[in-house]
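Write out this protein's structure.
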Amino acid sequence: MTDLHLRPQLMGGLNRRRFLAGLAASGALAACGGSDSDAESSADGAGGNTDADPGVAGNGFTLVQRFPNNVQIPGEIRMPITLSTGAAEFIQNGPATLTARVLDIDGNQLGDAISAVRRDVAPAPYYDFRTTIDAPGFFALAVAGGPDDGAAFQVMDPRAVAVPTPGEMLPGFDTPTVGDPQGFEVLCSRAPEPCPFHDVTLTEALAAGRPVAYYVGTPAFCSTGSCAPALEALIGAQERFADTFTFVHAEVFSDAAGTAIAPAVAAVGMTYEPALFITDATGTIVERLDAVWDQTELEERLALSA
């Protein structure tokens, strides 16, 4: 989906083609200095095992934007990026820490420099930069050693963002469960075994009066290659947080071929994958992780939200 939608018009008539168009439009894998198609090929594993030094050619490396570009609102902004070579190959052995500056549309630096550690996860490591931006506008993340112009991103007016954001209530939804699969051909596309997050609906989880971790993603059909690792991280975190959080998973597609968009996607206005909504005991969203995360970052954010 390439246009913006206000909440009363969430994703009417969404199909696989429009959903994939939304993935491209979101900028979740847009590489600065390379084509979108090259970046997506790398995400699927083509050339993903490069040993390139991020300090070699040209300005050092290009940046692959691992976050959707149409769902950020004023407040704390999370900007995961991956390093890429000039040949659009993911760099697997980048530095342990990167520093960056956030620039406004005129090239002025906002606040102090920020840093991020490397998080190692398939299909490529990422760096989760975070900063606070107070108003909508156009900005860039300029990483030391990378392109001078950095990775451009937009902070939206909250009224133009369909996906529920921190500070809002997560709307309940009767997600399919083992007891009531609702006609889904595949309740959970994780292989070889489904994940253990389909015992209660999201509505039931929110009504239980405890924090919820709600994951929307499709391990088998993910366009970015990050849905399966994200779900594995959630499974890994469950042992530590099972007494605090109720975990719920909803698939992106309702059929075995991965062609029919599931109603759960439209319910939260998503045009990208995956997403994790973390709520407090009242059902208020306190954190939303988009597109990519590893178990270490996930457990850090769950601990802060508990």
